[in-house]
Amino acid sequence: MGNSGLRQHYDTASKTGVLQISDKKLKDIPVEVFNLSEHLRNLDLSKNKISSVPDDISRLKNLKQLNLSANHIEVLPDSLIYLKKLEMLNVSNNSISSLPSHFSNLNNLKQVYLSHNKFTEFPSQLLCLNNLEVVDLSNNKITRIPDGMSDFYAAELNLSQNEISNLSEDLHQAPRLKILRLEENCLSLDAVRPSLLRDSKIHTINLDGNLFETKQLVSVEGYNEYTERYTALKKKMF
Known about the structure:
Elements: H1 3-16, E1 18-20, H2 31-34, E2 42-44, E3 65-67, E4 88-90, E5 111-113, E6 134-136, E7 156-158, E8 179-181, H3 194-198, E9 204-206, H4 223-237
């Protein structure tokens, strides 16, 4: 779609702060987007054919939500870290394998969606982000959860459909983690540490599709404490 076809979108965005130009067959981010730097709060460029994000992205200093999902992006630029007000980043369904080295400077991030990419390691840049609420890393090639999770602050972590066979020793120390999704990985029953069930704040852990039957969790030390948290949650809901 040519610039003339998008002009109305730009005019509206200058008033509302919201620009949605998804599914327009764009190969690049139009320069007109960056000219809206003073106004934009929400930018949706999903379902296009964008292969790279220019350094000019740093001009969008008031941006709170950025959706670049379902594009052809392989690398996120270091300049992304200047979006200090960013609260939601969605780059799912791309070909990204790592995050910018100083990604943890984005300390207002609440939601990060990285599913269906090419991550082989859990991104350590997600640690120490104090305002995180939700992280989705499903459908990647991650093989382990590394140590350092005591500095992981999200309440919900989705790692389903990876290749995880090892969980970190300190995963139970993630201070706010309550929902952990690990379906369809390569975990044995021995990989589920008693501390994760006994000492964490997790009330919902999904382990279907691993190398053991989920009913075998009953035999793991700490299972009773885990079910007590789950039951307490259900009582609050009803």
